[in-house]
Amino acid sequence: MLTVPQALDRLDSALAAAKAAGADSADAMYVGDGSTSVSVRLGKLEDIGRSEGEEVGIRVFIGHQSASVSSSDLTPQALAIAAERAVAMARLAPEDEWAGLAPADRLLTTLPQDLDIDDGQDPSAELLRDMAMAAEDAARAIPGVTNSEGGGASAGRAVTALATSTGFRGGKRSTSYGSSASVLAGAGGDMQRDYAWHSARHFSDLEAPATIGTRAGERAIRRLNPIKLETAPMPIIFDPRIGSSLVGHLIGAITGSAITRGTSFLKDALGTQVFDSAITITDDPHRPRGLRSRSFDGEGLPTNRSAIIENGMLTNWLLDAASARQLGLQPTGHAARGTSGPPGAGASNLHLEAGTDTPAALMAGIKRGFYVTELIGMGVNGLTGDYSRGASGFLIEDGEISVAVAEVTIAGNLISMFKVMVPANDLSFRHAVNVPTIRIDGMTVAGA
């Protein structure tokens, strides 16, 4: 894997080759990564894997024509051939009046901010094995756990770099670590599965494997002997580990590509009240040690902390340069890309600001409701906002969580769901998207 300076040197040579071949402008991206993962099952080592890869992607423009190529051969000769091929392809490509690099006057011109996303650690495969064993052992030690899908641990390192013919040069290196366990409780047709996991940029921030395993085992036990619910409208409480998917649906609806194609249920919602005024959703690319932290986006623009939803109001679309041109707006620093094809747009570290009530207070007034801990399937219509997903969790009776529930469907429409969303005060930062416990009234539970 190259260092950031080495990667930038390769990208510079690729851009020079593209210009020499006739490109009007170009950008190039390097991605190198390596990871080690270990999995165990029933107390025995099941797999140790090591993966490494490097690739450079080159995107060239001739007028409004563009093309992209990628190469895993990083020698200057190979990159020159790739650049020439990209130029030849661009000459044959159809014109796209919106295509082009990000505006040069908006590029990041200062040194990238240190976001503390590389701790310099390199844990051995033996240590990862011991972590995976500890996670599974703790899960299997919970009375009632009868089988296991396994425990796992991983460690990875990545280097990314971006250079443009308009003068941007930047890169970053990062580390990532993970630990998980998944087990089954019960026997025969009554078996229930659950899991727990944690990821972190710093090895020292990773939750203890035994804690992760214990949580997985306890979750599986709680799901035994589930009932089905009658079909009826009910208040629904979303557990934080799956409530983040609701924020994901919001982000998918406000990216530039969805807006320019007219395929978003929020295409006319900019500057309007989408949520209750108590709701604020923040994108924070500068959070230290964040799983999606970055100083610049996929086109070299600076990133900034921003409230995507502020006091319930949708403040902006998430725009790359092409979608911004099409909408007559400025790019927002949310371009996201790999080494193949043009950028799209996406968020970084997201969180829904905490509310004022505890989760218990949020449930206190519910006579009969549904606490959701797992969602199944992807039954969401991005054009209309219609929402229908399989779900499991627990019955809420008289404000208290009671018996397990399985094999039901929850349904509603995201437009109305967003307007009545109420967050609890239990926000914690564990993932790339973090939310507190969420209550939504007016949804339908379809059961037996």
From TrEMBL:
Residues 27-90 form the Metalloprotease TldD/E N-terminal domain. This is Modulator protein. Belongs to the peptidase U62 family. InterPro entries: Metalloprtase-TldD/E_C, Metalloprtase-TldD/E_cen_dom, Metalloprtase-TldD/E_N, PmbA, TldD/PmbA_N, TldD/PmbA_sf. GO terms for molecular function: metallopeptidase activity. One of its GO terms (cellular component) is cytosol. One of its GO terms (biological process) is proteolysis. Residues 120-224 form the Metalloprotease TldD/E central domain. It holds the Pfam family PmbA_TldD_1st. Residues 233-447 form the Metalloprotease TldD/E C-terminal domain.
